[in-house]
Amino acid sequence: MQIPDYLTSLEQAFLVHSNSETALQMKKYMKDKFVFFGVKSPVRKQLYRVQKQQFGLIPIEKKVEIVKWCWGAPQREWQYFAMEFLGKEAKKVDEDVISLYEFIILNKSWWDTVDYIASNLVGSYLRKFPEQIAILTEKWMKSDNMWLQRTCLLFQLKYRQKTDAQLLERFIIRLTDSKEFFIRKAIGWSLREYSKTNPAYVKQFVDKHQLSGLSEREAKKWMKSKDV
After folding, report:
1. How far is Cα 137 from Cα 133, in angstroms, rounded to an integer?
2. β partners of residue 75
Protein backbone atom coordinates (compact mmCIF):
# COMPACT_ATOMS: atom_id res chain seq x y z
CA MET A 1 0.00 0.00 0.00
CA GLN A 2 1.35 3.41 -0.97
CA ILE A 3 2.53 5.58 1.88
CA PRO A 4 0.08 8.38 2.75
CA ASP A 5 1.28 11.88 1.84
CA TYR A 6 1.11 12.89 5.49
CA LEU A 7 3.92 10.42 6.30
CA THR A 8 6.38 10.92 3.44
CA SER A 9 8.48 13.53 5.25
CA LEU A 10 8.61 11.41 8.39
CA GLU A 11 9.70 8.40 6.36
CA GLN A 12 12.67 10.36 5.05
CA ALA A 13 13.51 11.47 8.59
CA PHE A 14 13.41 7.88 9.84
CA LEU A 15 15.72 6.81 7.01
CA VAL A 16 18.17 9.65 7.67
CA HIS A 17 18.38 8.80 11.37
CA SER A 18 18.34 5.02 10.95
CA ASN A 19 21.13 3.02 12.53
CA SER A 20 21.64 -0.61 11.57
CA GLU A 21 23.52 -1.52 14.74
CA THR A 22 20.88 0.04 16.98
CA ALA A 23 18.18 -1.62 14.88
CA LEU A 24 19.67 -5.05 15.57
CA GLN A 25 19.88 -4.31 19.29
CA MET A 26 16.25 -3.17 19.37
CA LYS A 27 15.15 -6.23 17.39
CA LYS A 28 16.94 -8.51 19.84
CA TYR A 29 15.38 -6.72 22.83
CA MET A 30 11.96 -7.37 21.30
CA LYS A 31 12.71 -11.11 21.01
CA ASP A 32 13.23 -10.78 17.24
CA LYS A 33 9.53 -10.13 16.72
CA PHE A 34 9.94 -6.82 14.86
CA VAL A 35 12.41 -5.00 12.65
CA PHE A 36 13.46 -1.42 13.33
CA PHE A 37 14.95 1.61 11.64
CA GLY A 38 17.09 1.89 14.76
CA VAL A 39 15.84 5.32 15.82
CA LYS A 40 15.97 5.67 19.60
CA SER A 41 13.21 7.31 21.60
CA PRO A 42 14.85 10.74 22.17
CA VAL A 43 15.44 11.17 18.43
CA ARG A 44 11.94 9.92 17.63
CA LYS A 45 10.52 12.57 19.96
CA GLN A 46 12.43 15.25 18.05
CA LEU A 47 11.14 13.92 14.73
CA TYR A 48 7.60 13.89 16.13
CA ARG A 49 7.89 17.54 17.10
CA VAL A 50 8.95 18.46 13.58
CA GLN A 51 6.14 16.36 12.12
CA LYS A 52 3.56 18.04 14.32
CA GLN A 53 4.90 21.54 13.62
CA GLN A 54 4.91 21.01 9.87
CA PHE A 55 1.85 18.83 9.31
CA GLY A 56 -0.18 18.80 12.52
CA LEU A 57 -1.65 15.73 14.15
CA ILE A 58 -3.05 12.86 12.10
CA PRO A 59 -5.86 14.29 9.91
CA ILE A 60 -9.21 13.20 11.33
CA GLU A 61 -10.64 12.28 7.96
CA LYS A 62 -7.67 9.97 7.24
CA LYS A 63 -7.00 8.71 10.75
CA VAL A 64 -7.99 5.09 10.15
CA GLU A 65 -6.12 4.91 6.84
CA ILE A 66 -2.92 6.39 8.27
CA VAL A 67 -2.91 4.39 11.50
CA LYS A 68 -3.56 1.13 9.64
CA TRP A 69 -0.80 1.97 7.15
CA CYS A 70 1.58 2.47 10.07
CA TRP A 71 0.45 -0.81 11.59
CA GLY A 72 1.09 -2.59 8.32
CA ALA A 73 4.57 -1.12 7.87
CA PRO A 74 7.44 -3.44 8.82
CA GLN A 75 9.46 -1.11 11.04
CA ARG A 76 8.28 -0.92 14.64
CA GLU A 77 8.88 2.84 14.80
CA TRP A 78 5.79 3.31 12.61
CA GLN A 79 3.60 1.64 15.21
CA TYR A 80 5.15 3.77 17.94
CA PHE A 81 4.47 6.90 15.92
CA ALA A 82 0.84 6.02 15.26
CA MET A 83 -0.06 5.16 18.84
CA GLU A 84 1.82 8.14 20.32
CA PHE A 85 0.19 10.58 17.91
CA LEU A 86 -3.18 9.05 18.78
CA GLY A 87 -2.21 9.70 22.39
CA LYS A 88 -1.78 13.42 21.68
CA GLU A 89 -5.50 13.69 20.88
CA ALA A 90 -6.82 10.97 23.20
CA LYS A 91 -9.09 13.36 25.12
CA LYS A 92 -10.81 14.63 21.97
CA VAL A 93 -11.88 11.38 20.35
CA ASP A 94 -15.32 10.26 19.24
CA GLU A 95 -16.95 7.16 20.69
CA ASP A 96 -16.36 5.08 17.56
CA VAL A 97 -12.55 5.31 17.81
CA ILE A 98 -12.60 2.24 20.04
CA SER A 99 -12.75 -0.03 16.98
CA LEU A 100 -9.41 1.42 15.85
CA TYR A 101 -7.95 0.97 19.34
CA GLU A 102 -9.08 -2.64 19.32
CA PHE A 103 -7.47 -3.16 15.92
CA ILE A 104 -4.07 -1.93 17.11
CA ILE A 105 -4.30 -4.03 20.28
CA LEU A 106 -4.99 -7.17 18.26
CA ASN A 107 -2.43 -6.67 15.50
CA LYS A 108 1.35 -6.91 15.94
CA SER A 109 0.57 -7.36 19.62
CA TRP A 110 3.37 -7.09 22.15
CA TRP A 111 3.83 -5.36 25.48
CA ASP A 112 5.55 -2.31 23.99
CA THR A 113 2.41 -1.23 22.13
CA VAL A 114 -0.38 -2.82 24.15
CA ASP A 115 0.70 -1.25 27.45
CA TYR A 116 0.73 2.24 25.96
CA ILE A 117 -2.61 1.69 24.24
CA ALA A 118 -4.17 0.32 27.44
CA SER A 119 -3.11 3.06 29.83
CA ASN A 120 -3.05 6.08 27.50
CA LEU A 121 -5.65 5.43 24.82
CA VAL A 122 -8.20 3.01 26.27
CA GLY A 123 -7.80 4.51 29.74
CA SER A 124 -8.53 8.00 28.43
CA TYR A 125 -11.40 6.73 26.26
CA LEU A 126 -13.15 5.05 29.18
CA ARG A 127 -12.78 8.16 31.32
CA LYS A 128 -14.62 10.05 28.62
CA PHE A 129 -17.19 7.33 27.93
CA PRO A 130 -17.63 5.51 31.28
CA GLU A 131 -20.91 3.99 30.10
CA GLN A 132 -18.79 1.82 27.78
CA ILE A 133 -16.70 0.27 30.57
CA ALA A 134 -18.96 -2.65 31.43
CA ILE A 135 -19.83 -3.44 27.80
CA LEU A 136 -16.31 -3.23 26.45
CA THR A 137 -14.44 -4.95 29.26
CA GLU A 138 -16.92 -7.82 29.44
CA LYS A 139 -16.50 -8.38 25.71
CA TRP A 140 -12.73 -8.31 26.01
CA MET A 141 -12.59 -10.52 29.09
CA LYS A 142 -14.73 -13.13 27.32
CA SER A 143 -12.58 -12.98 24.19
CA ASP A 144 -9.84 -15.21 25.65
CA ASN A 145 -7.39 -12.92 23.88
CA MET A 146 -4.47 -12.31 26.23
CA TRP A 147 -3.83 -8.76 25.01
CA LEU A 148 -7.44 -7.64 25.33
CA GLN A 149 -7.55 -9.14 28.81
CA ARG A 150 -4.28 -7.43 29.72
CA THR A 151 -5.84 -4.17 28.56
CA CYS A 152 -8.74 -4.72 30.97
CA LEU A 153 -6.24 -5.09 33.80
CA LEU A 154 -4.17 -2.05 32.83
CA PHE A 155 -6.54 0.61 31.52
CA GLN A 156 -6.94 2.09 35.04
CA LEU A 157 -3.19 2.39 35.69
CA LYS A 158 -3.37 6.19 35.77
CA TYR A 159 -6.75 6.49 37.52
CA ARG A 160 -5.26 6.56 41.05
CA GLN A 161 -8.02 7.46 43.52
CA LYS A 162 -10.61 7.12 40.75
CA THR A 163 -9.74 3.46 40.24
CA ASP A 164 -12.75 1.18 40.38
CA ALA A 165 -11.14 -1.33 42.73
CA GLN A 166 -14.09 -3.71 42.65
CA LEU A 167 -13.94 -3.88 38.87
CA LEU A 168 -10.20 -4.52 38.94
CA GLU A 169 -10.72 -7.18 41.60
CA ARG A 170 -13.26 -8.99 39.44
CA PHE A 171 -10.87 -9.03 36.49
CA ILE A 172 -8.01 -10.35 38.61
CA ILE A 173 -10.11 -13.10 40.16
CA ARG A 174 -11.29 -14.22 36.71
CA LEU A 175 -7.69 -14.38 35.47
CA THR A 176 -5.95 -15.70 38.59
CA ASP A 177 -5.51 -19.18 37.10
CA SER A 178 -3.96 -17.91 33.88
CA LYS A 179 -0.55 -19.38 33.08
CA GLU A 180 0.27 -16.50 30.71
CA PHE A 181 3.27 -14.47 31.84
CA PHE A 182 1.80 -11.23 30.52
CA ILE A 183 -1.44 -11.74 32.44
CA ARG A 184 0.31 -12.62 35.67
CA LYS A 185 2.63 -9.65 35.28
CA ALA A 186 -0.30 -7.31 34.57
CA ILE A 187 -2.18 -8.51 37.65
CA GLY A 188 0.80 -7.59 39.81
CA TRP A 189 1.42 -4.32 37.99
CA SER A 190 -2.17 -3.15 38.34
CA LEU A 191 -2.13 -3.91 42.07
CA ARG A 192 1.27 -2.25 42.51
CA GLU A 193 0.04 0.96 40.92
CA TYR A 194 -3.11 0.95 43.04
CA SER A 195 -1.03 0.31 46.17
CA LYS A 196 0.41 3.82 45.73
CA THR A 197 -3.12 5.13 46.36
CA ASN A 198 -4.62 2.50 48.64
CA PRO A 199 -1.95 0.20 50.14
CA ALA A 200 -4.29 -1.17 52.80
CA TYR A 201 -6.67 -2.45 50.15
CA VAL A 202 -3.90 -4.10 48.15
CA LYS A 203 -2.38 -5.73 51.24
CA GLN A 204 -5.75 -7.17 52.19
CA PHE A 205 -6.43 -8.34 48.64
CA VAL A 206 -3.07 -10.10 48.29
CA ASP A 207 -3.50 -11.80 51.69
CA LYS A 208 -7.01 -12.94 50.81
CA HIS A 209 -6.37 -14.36 47.33
CA GLN A 210 -4.01 -17.01 46.03
CA LEU A 211 -2.00 -15.19 43.37
CA SER A 212 0.91 -16.51 41.34
CA GLY A 213 4.34 -15.80 42.77
CA LEU A 214 5.00 -13.31 39.98
CA SER A 215 1.74 -11.43 40.56
CA GLU A 216 2.29 -11.27 44.31
CA ARG A 217 5.88 -10.06 44.02
CA GLU A 218 4.88 -7.35 41.58
CA ALA A 219 1.92 -6.32 43.73
CA LYS A 220 4.08 -5.87 46.83
CA LYS A 221 7.10 -4.29 45.13
CA TRP A 222 6.27 -0.62 45.73
CA MET A 223 5.01 -1.19 49.28
CA LYS A 224 8.14 -3.17 50.10
CA SER A 225 10.42 -0.43 48.72
CA LYS A 226 8.62 2.17 50.84
CA ASP A 227 8.29 -0.12 53.88
CA VAL A 228 4.53 0.42 53.82
Report:
1. 6
2. 35
- The chain-wide mean pLDDT, for the chain, equals 97
Residues 125-138: pLDDT tens digits?
999 999 999 999 99
By residue count, the chain amounts to 228
Q: What is the 3-state secondary structure (H, E, C) of 131-168?
A: HHHHHHHHHHHHCCCHHHHHHHHHCCCCCHHHCCHHHH
- 98 & 208 share domain: yes
Element (DSSP H or E) covering residue 63: helix 63-72
Going by C-alpha positions, the residue among 196, 189, 228 that lies closest to residue 212 is: 189
Q: pTM (2 decimals)?
A: 0.96
- End-of-domain residue from the set 38, 56, 88: 88
Number of separate domains in the chain: 2
Report how far residue 64's alpha carbon sits from residue 78's, in angstroms, rounded to the nearest whole number.
Answer: 14
Please report, as a single letter, which amino acid is at residue 124: S
Whether residue 71 contacts residue 111, with contact meaning beta carbons closer than 8 Å, is answered with no
User: How does pLDDT run across 55-109, given as a tens digit for each residue?
Assistant: 999 999 999 999 999 999 999 999 999 999 999 999 999 999 999 999 999 999 9
